[in-house]
C-alpha cells in the first residue's frame, strides 16, 4: 500500500514539475515578445535602415545632391537662420544677403547676379526721363488708332479646303494562264465512265496535269463524307491512286460520295470539296474542273429520300420469362451458324461471306467471352437489314425459321417492339413490306446486298 502511494506522489510531482516548466517557458516567451513589439511609441519604419525610394535613389545621394541638411519649419525660423548667417558675413545689405546665401547653397540654381543700390538721379535727368516716357506713350497711342488691313472680300478670307486626291484602286494582276498543254483534256475526263463512281450520288472532280507527277500523299478533300481518287497512269490505265514510288500519273478523277447513312451532303460541303480539288490541282501543276452543284443536288435529293425510306432493320425479340444462362445462349446460336464478332454481336454470313443476320443483346450491351460465361440474360434480338439481304422473301423465311428454332431450344417467347406475341398475320405483313422496299431499290438499280448498296448504306 505504501509503495503505491509513493508511486502516485512521484507521478504527481513529475506532472507538477512539467506544468511549472511550461509556465516558466511561456512567461519567458511573453517577456521576449513584449520587449520586441510592446513599445507603442516606437515606429519600426523610422528606425529601419531602408535605403531605397520610389525612383531607386538612396537618401544619402539625395542629401548630397541638395546639400541641404535641415529645412526650416516656419517662416520665423527661416528668418532667424538668415539673420544669423548675415551676422557672420561682412557688412552688406540685408536684402541681398539671403539671396546670395540660397544661391550659393543650391547647385541646381544659377548664380544670382550682383544687385546694387539704385542710383540717385538729378533734377535734369529726371525731367529728361519723364519726357522720354511721354513720347513713347504718344507713339503707342498713334499706332493703336491706325485701322487694320481687312481682306478685300469675304471669299478671300475663307480658306478653301484641300480636296482629297482620289487614287484609283490598284488591282492585283490576274495570274496568266499557263499555255503549256495538258496531258489529258478535261472534257475527255468528264465524259469518262468509271466503275468506281456513280454520278447520281458521287460529286465528281477532274484534274489534268501538264507534266507526269507522282502522288506523294493522299490529299484530304473532305471531312465527313467518303471520297475516292482514281489516277490515270501514263499508259492510259485507271487505277486507285496511291503514293507508290515510280508510278507517275497524268490525270486524276475524284468522287465525293454525297449520299450515305449520314445524310445528303450540303451545298457548303460540296463547295468546300470543289475548292480542295482546285488546290490539289494547283499543287500538282494541273487544271481542275468539278460538276455543277445545283444540277447535281436536284438529281441526288430524290435518291437520298428513297435511301432514307428503305434503310430499315426488322427486329424480332426472343424474351425469357425467367432468364437464360449465357453459356446456353452461346451454345444455341453457334449451333445455328452464328459467330461471335469483335463488336459484341453474333452474325450469320451468307455464301459470299457477307453478313445476313445479326443477334444483339436486348439492352444493347456487347456480348463478351467473360460475360457469356458468367451471367444470365433475359433474351436477345435478331436483326434483318432490308438493304443487305439479297433475296427478300426466301431469306426472310430462313430468318423466321431460325428465330422459331432458337426460341424453342431456349424456351423464349417471340415478341415485336411493343412486346406483343408474334402472329402469322404480322409475319405476312412484314414479309410483304420487306419485298416492297427491296423492289424500290431494284427500280433505281440498287441491288440489295450489292456493291452500290454497301456504299450507300455503310
Automatic annotation (TrEMBL):
<dbReference type="GO" id="GO:0005886">
    <property type="term" value="C:plasma membrane"/>
</dbReference>
<comment type="function">
    <text>Essential cell division protein that stabilizes the FtsZ protofilaments by cross-linking them and that serves as a cytoplasmic membrane anchor for the Z ring. Also required for the recruitment to the septal ring of downstream cell division proteins.</text>
</comment>
<keyword id="KW-1003">Cell membrane</keyword>
<dbReference type="Pfam" id="PF04354">
    <property type="entry name" value="ZipA_C"/>
</dbReference>
<dbReference type="InterPro" id="IPR036765">
    <property type="entry name" value="ZipA_FtsZ-bd_C_sf"/>
</dbReference>
<protein>
    <recommendedName>
        <fullName>Cell division protein ZipA</fullName>
    </recommendedName>
</protein>
<keyword id="KW-0997">Cell inner membrane</keyword>
<feature type="domain" description="ZipA C-terminal FtsZ-binding">
    <location>
        <begin position="310"/>
        <end position="434"/>
    </location>
</feature>
<keyword id="KW-0472">Membrane</keyword>
<comment type="similarity">
    <text>Belongs to the ZipA family.</text>
</comment>
<dbReference type="GO" id="GO:0090529">
    <property type="term" value="P:cell septum assembly"/>
</dbReference>
<keyword id="KW-0132">Cell division</keyword>
<dbReference type="InterPro" id="IPR007449">
    <property type="entry name" value="ZipA_FtsZ-bd_C"/>
</dbReference>
<keyword id="KW-0131">Cell cycle</keyword>
<keyword id="KW-0812">Transmembrane</keyword>
Amino acid at each position: 500500500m505504501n509503495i503505491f502511494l509513493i508511486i502516485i506522489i512521484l507521478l504527481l510531482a513529475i506532472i507538477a514539475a512539467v506544468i511549472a516548466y511550461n509556465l516558466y517557458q511561456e512567461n519567458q516567451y511573453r517577456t521576449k515578445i513584449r520587449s520586441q513589439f510592446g513599445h507603442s511609441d516606437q515606429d519600426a519604419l523610422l528606425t529601419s535602415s531602408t535605403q531605397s525610394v520610389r525612383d531607386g535613389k538612396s537618401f544619402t545621394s539625395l542629401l548630397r545632391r541638395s546639400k541641404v541638411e535641415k529645412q526650416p519649419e516656419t517662416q520665423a525660423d527661416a528668418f532667424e537662420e538668415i539673420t544669423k548667417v548675415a551676422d557672420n558675413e561682412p557688412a552688406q545689405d540685408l536684402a541681398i544677403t539671403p539671396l546670395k546665401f540660397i544661391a550659393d547653397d543650391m547647385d541646381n540654381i544659377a548664380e544670382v547676379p550682383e544687385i546694387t543700390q539704385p542710383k540717385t538721379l538729378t533734377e535734369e535727368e529726371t525731367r529728361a526721363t519723364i519726357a522720354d516716357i511721354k513720347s513713347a506713350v504718344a507713339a503707342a497711342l498713334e499706332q493703336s488708332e491706325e485701322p487694320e488691313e481687312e481682306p478685300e472680300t469675304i471669299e478671300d478670307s475663307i480658306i478653301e479646303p484641300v480636296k482629297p486626291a482620289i487614287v484609283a484602286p490598284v488591282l492585283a494582276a490576274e495570274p496568266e494562264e499557263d499555255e503549256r498543254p495538258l496531258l489529258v483534256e478535261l472534257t475527255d475526263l468528264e465524259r469518262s465512265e468509271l466503275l468506281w463512281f456513280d454520278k447520281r450520288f458521287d460529286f465528281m472532280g477532274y484534274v489534268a496535269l501538264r507534266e507526269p507527277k507522282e502522288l506523294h500523299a493522299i490529299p484530304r478533300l473532305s471531312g465527313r463524307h467518303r471520297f475516292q481518287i482514281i489516277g490515270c497512269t501514263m499508259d492510259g490505265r485507271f487505277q486507285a491512286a496511291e503514293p507508290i514510288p515510280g508510278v507517275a500519273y497524268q490525270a486524276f478523277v475524284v468522287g465525293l460520295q454525297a449520299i450515305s447513312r449520314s445524310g445528303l451532303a450540303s451545298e457548303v460541303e460540296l463547295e468546300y470539296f470543289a475548292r480542295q480539288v482546285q488546290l490539289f490541282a494547283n499543287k500538282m501543276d494541273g487544271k481542275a474542273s468539278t460538276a455543277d452543284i445545283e444540277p447535281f443536288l436536284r438529281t441526288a435529293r430524290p435518291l437520298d429520300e428513297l435511301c432514307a425510306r428503305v434503310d430499315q432493320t426488322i427486329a424480332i425479340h426472343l424474351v425469357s420469362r425467367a432468364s437464360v444462362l449465357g453459356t446456353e445462349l452461346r451454345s444455341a446460336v453457334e449451333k445455328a451458324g452464328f459467330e461471335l464478332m469483335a463488336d459484341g454481336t453474333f452474325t450469320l454470313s451468307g455464301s459470299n461471306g457477307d453478313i445476313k443476320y445479326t443477334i444483339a443483346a436486348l439492352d444493347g450491351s456487347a456480348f463478351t467471352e467473360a460475360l457469356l460465361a458468367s451471367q444470365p440474360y433475359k433474351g436477345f434480338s435478331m436483326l434483318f437489314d432490308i438493304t443487305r439481304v439479297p433475296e427478300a422473301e426466301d431469306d426472310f423465311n430462313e430468318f423466321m425459321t431460325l428465330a422459331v428454332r432458337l426460341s424453342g431450344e431456349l424456351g423464349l417467347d417471340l415478341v415485336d417492339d411493343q412486346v406483343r406475341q408474334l402472329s402469322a398475320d404480322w409475319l405476312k405483313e412484314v414479309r410483304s413490306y420487306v419485298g416492297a422496299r427491296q423492289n424500290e431499290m431494284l427500280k433505281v438499280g440498287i441491288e440489295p446486298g450489292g456493291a452500290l448498296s454497301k456504299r450507300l448504306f455503310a
